[in-house]
Amino acid sequence: MSRQTGKTRRIDHYGERLRKRRDRLSPGMLTVADYIDGHRHAVLSKSALEIGFATGTSDATVIRTLQALGFSGLVDLKDTLEAYLGQTDSPIEKMATTTDELKGNSDAAIDFVVENQRAALETLTSANNRAALAIATQLLTKSAGIGVFGIGASGIIADYAARLFARSGFRSYALNNTGIALAEQMLAIEQGHALLMLLHGRPHREALTAINEAKRLDVPVILVLSQSESVLRQHASACLVMPRTKSEQVALHAPSLVAVETIALALAATAEERTLKTLNRLVDLRSAIRPDKR
Known about the structure:
58% of the residues lie in helices and 9% in strands. It has helices at residues 13-21, 27-38, 40-43, 48-55, 59-68, 74-85, 91-102, 106-124, 127-141, 153-167, 180-186, 205-216, 254-270, 272-289; strands at residues 145-149, 172-175, 193-199, 221-225, 238-241.
């Protein structure tokens, strides 16, 4: 199966639908439609509720507008806009774009990874990230428990982070399921806890639900984002930005892993006695389970 690699003219499906159907829209719906048309990049990271707020309407009006324009919903709209803007969440397209650039060259693969990680590490050392890490460490240190949120590959890192924090004496748990299974995990969030979230930047339903639950319980939210311009930042007490890669290329998750290990080390340094006491107990428990191992 061959894949066309040359540049093709992108069709503005949203613009075409708006031109053909704008006469059928009510004033409120037209306000929403024109806002989307003029803020296409921003809309990619907004929920229906946030678009409604920005247009002085409601999330219901936003959904009715999209349906009147022939979209099944907000996800359908975003997929259409991303296709036109050259952004995609398709792992197939991202991998194809990346491998086309590498051209089967292993040296190019090394350069690709190094370039991406160098950019992430340089960003980690920025003044903004240093300040955010200081705030995050303070919030996490005084919390009674740490929930670590991540979906997909980030969910694996979330589980690893929870284990790292627990080894330093901080009660931690992963929030890494999707759909209704996540609801059961979120029952673990309590007042006095802190919520660390590993996110790309799009406000998907799972992320927004976790943030709303944190707000309800007055739990501080700490974000590790790969997109600096995300509407989710407004919900955070602290936000570290760790860019992963260009939007059209395959996502590498090492930056999120680096952020998690940096936070874990900062926690250990802040609560050194607590960390060493917990690790000492861990060694004793390991010895009890496998006495022949040292």
